[in-house]
Amino acid sequence: MDFDLPESALAVREGVAAVAAKYDHAYWSRCEEEHRFPQEVFDDLGNGGWFGLCIPEEYGGGGQGLLELAVANMTLCASGGVAGTFFYVTTPGFGAMTLTRHGTPAQRERILPGLADGTLQFCLALTEPDAGSNAIEITTAARRDGDEFVLKGQKVWISNVENADWMVAVTRTIPAAETKQRGLPRTAGFTLFLVDVKEALAAGTLSYTPIPKMGSNILHSSQVFLDDVRVPAANVLGEVDAGFAVLWDVLNPERILAASGGIGTADAALRIACDYARSREVFGRPIGAHQGLQFPLAQLKAKTELGRLMTYQAAWLFDRGRPCGNEANVAKLTGAQVGWEAADQAFQTLGGMAYSKEYPVERIFRDARIAKNIPVAEELVLAHIGTQMLGLPKSY
Fold first, then answer.
1. What is the signed CA dihedral for 203, 204, 208, 209, rounded to 10 degrees?
2. Residue 385 CA to chain centroid, in angstroms?
3. Which of 20, 36, 97, 273 could form a cystine bridge with 79, CB 3.0-4.6 A?
4. For the chain, how big is the Rg over CA atoms in Å?
């Protein structure tokens, strides 16, 4: 067994760290306060090719895999830009990874070069108000009309639509009730489409409303309305009625990238806490010398390293085309938990000063909490582990 990261991943970590070092905590906090997309750091990462790592070289990419993307995201988040994980989940994850694996030659030729150089962005439209985490029950419909499909429905909590050039829209071309009547599998009847966001916005068939939220305000999370959006049949991802296979290949990378963001968040929070604990003196000694503060931080460091290994393993399996659902779920659970716990302990370490916006802990604290709920709720991950890994009965 070889636990050394490949040279490609080490080079990614060094390169992304060099970019991230130009943007301090104050920069990320300003973007958060102003609800402003961090265009400068996004452009720097795009120009350096750090979003196109998984794209084949013939399209201008790095020809690497999900492991390198996870390392890049982990490094960016560890720098303090913890909400930057949305960069890697939305555009490289939803866009580049999906097109590289499932796009037609024409789709790849049209879109991948722009993803490789950072000039195009993506979003995914899956979640719906009445379906929530139960993707099987989505109702957004797509009907055939000649050489086009017409999409109609509503999505919610769609991140980055305001910046996106393209959307992966998850629809039903066979309603859920009809699949039951016809004796088809529950996952039948899904079709994924590439929607030209700007074209649909200009046509007035796509609209969105940002949802005011607690953190991660460097981009919007929105309600999205699809009102007879017309999409060429050539923009189908995978096969009509058989899109769930493509969706699985979206969701596992999403969970692995989310896990890497959680680990990077823990790295950032622990660094802030430890720097403060070394320099802050009370009762004649640094507060970090007191075991009441030192031991919780040490425990979190151990959990962070365990989560890092599981994230690497899940990405390694995915890159080799091997089953990775269990590992992706365990990595996501662990990364989200340790990111939140480290942010919470950093808050405790700084005491009352953590409540002040003079320090970045309050921002990291807010940004870290949502990871326990997205991209899949902690309870659903635990249910997967219980039923699929432990063989326990389902509750439904």
1. 140
2. 21
3. 20
4. 21
Distance CA 160, CA 134 (A): 22
Report the distance separating Cα 146 and Cα 26, nearest Å: 53
* CA 102/CA 365 separation, integer angstroms: 37
As a whole number of angstroms, the distance between CA 74 and CA 9 comes to 11
Structure tokens at 186: 């529950």
Say if residue 100's pLDDT is above 80. yes
CA gap 270, 268 in Å, rounded: 6
- The sign of the dihedral angle between the CA atoms of 39, 44, 46, 47 is positive
Average pLDDT over residues 283-311: 96
* Per-residue pLDDT at 339: 98
SS3 50: coil
Give Cβ neighbours of residue 275 (< 8 Å, ≥ 6 apart): none
- Please check whether residue 254 is in contact with residue 375, taking contact to mean a CB–CB distance below 8 angstroms: yes
Tell me the C-alpha distance between 330 and 256, whole Å.
Answer: 9
CA distance 262 to 339: 5
Burial class (CB in 10 A: 0-12, 13-18, 19+), 74: buried
- C-alpha distance from residue 310 to each of 44, 95, 180 (Å): 29, 24, 37
Residue with tokens 């599981």, as numbered in its chain: 310
Spacing of C-alpha 369 from chain mean position: 14
Which of the four pLDDT bands, split at 50, 70 and 90, describes residue 141?
Answer: very high
pLDDT band at 133 (very low <50, low <70, confident <90, very high): confident
Using DSSP bridges, classify how beta strands 285-286 and 281-282 pair: parallel, antiparallel or unpaired. Answer: antiparallel
